[in-house]
Amino acid sequence: PPQQPQRPRKKRTGAVAGLLAGALALAGGVAWWALAEDGPYRLATPDTVASAYQRQGKGVDASALVKDGQALPGVTDPHPVVASYRGADKETLTFSGAWGTVTDPRAAVDAVFAQTEASKDAELVGEPTEEPPPGFDGELMRCQGVRADRLYSVLCAWGDSSTVGVVTFSGPTLAPAEPDPKSMQRVSIVTQDVREDTRVPVE
Question: Rounded to an integer, what distance in angstroms lies between the CA atom of residue 103 and that of residue 35?
């Protein structure tokens, strides 16, 4: 007799995410915030990211910094992490992120930039770009220049079905002038590498 078709498995639709409170202070006293999703991946802070950036000190599990009422709509149960990295030529890279389950990655990324814009110590400059590097398989990546104490850096945030993370990149080549499209593209590639290195399958 012909076989009966199998019933499709139900997909889990519940979503949880969190606001990373007090991520890390950069030069000029800028604090970065991040959100993230739960799913098949968690976020780690390995010794090296993007091949050339070495972690300074220990990575921090910042879950204790997230207080009631700091989650965005539809975002709960955050598991945030923070780490600082240094590369050649005095380049610095700060990674902050959180894993949980998220309903809307784009809303989470919007919140990252809104928190930065609301900061008294920093301002967004130039136009944001959402042109991710080749090979990026998340929902979106957004990058924009940031100015703090007359120095410039680039902020990139990604959002996907498992995580949302933030990379802030600064160095002598960026410090004196507003980032140009070439600089933004370079940081987006570094951010893609950081994403690959920090996402770890949940066992």
Answer: 11
